[in-house]
Amino acid sequence: MIEIRDVDYRTAERTLVSDIDLVVRPGELTAISGTSGSGKTTLLSVVGGLVRPSTGSVLLDGEATWRGSGDPLPAMSFILQVYGLVPILSARENVSIALRARGVAARTADDDAEEMLDRLRIGDLSSRQVEELSGGQLQRVACARALAVKAPVLLADEPTSELDHTSRDLVMGLLRERAEAGATVVVATHDDEVVDQCDVHHRMDEGRLVSVSTPG
Length: 216
Ligand SMILES: Nc1ncnc2c1ncn2[C@@H]1O[C@H](COP(=O)(O)OP(=O)(O)O)[C@@H](O)[C@H]1O
Ligand SMILES: [Mg+2]
Description:
Order of helices and strands: EEEHEEEHHHEHEHEE
Strand order of the largest sheet: 6-7-8-3-9-10
Distance between the termini: 23 Å
Number of domains: 2
Mean pLDDT: 95
Shape: globular
Bound molecules: adenosine-5'-diphosphate, magnesium ion
Helix content: 25-40%
Strand content: 25-35%
CATH superfamily of the largest domain: P-loop containing nucleotide triphosphate hydrolases
CATH class of the largest domain: Alpha Beta
Radius of gyration: 17 Å
Number of strands: 10
Largest sheet: 6 strands, mixed
Low-confidence stretches: none
Number of helices: 6
């Protein structure tokens, strides 16, 4: 369980996120919606322990997610808006290195990477350097990397923004699988159809949570 307690995030000039109090439960898909600039990415960055909250705290099963350095807890995995892929490596290598970094043996990591790329229907591109891929293909490699490591927490920042409906629903199905396996999954999105596929919905406006509801 993630507990976000009274969190603000401020820069020298502005408050980007304020008064966030929220509990995010495992086993569910939690959507954070809001227009561009509403603070979704900032909030996910605080929750994931990439930046320090200016006030308040974020706890994962009682442990602070901010560890003093911006290195996230091993339990965290991310799909970031800037995908963070290594341009000169292949799609398979980009996924595989994330697994190896978590202690998976090289051969198994390559096989798992290949399988996840297949499930996202880009298995045929697994040997291609990612700098040669399209935006939607890159986004699917970033999704494959985050999904393949099977971390207890998955923070997904607009994971389907570059995808057509078929690929979007594939990604949502895989996020659902992670939730069903007990993971805590948070999806920042401005796509109502993504929100509809989640269990819990929180909306942000100008850095604040403005409503809490359950779709359907
Ligand atoms: N590092 C930063 N320094 C200053 N302003 C920022 C920074 N990151 C984001 N912002 C601003 O904070 C606001 C919230 O941004 P963001 O969290 O990226 O929103 P969203 O992901 O919902 O589009 C925006 O106005 C954005 O321009
Ligand atoms: Mg954003």
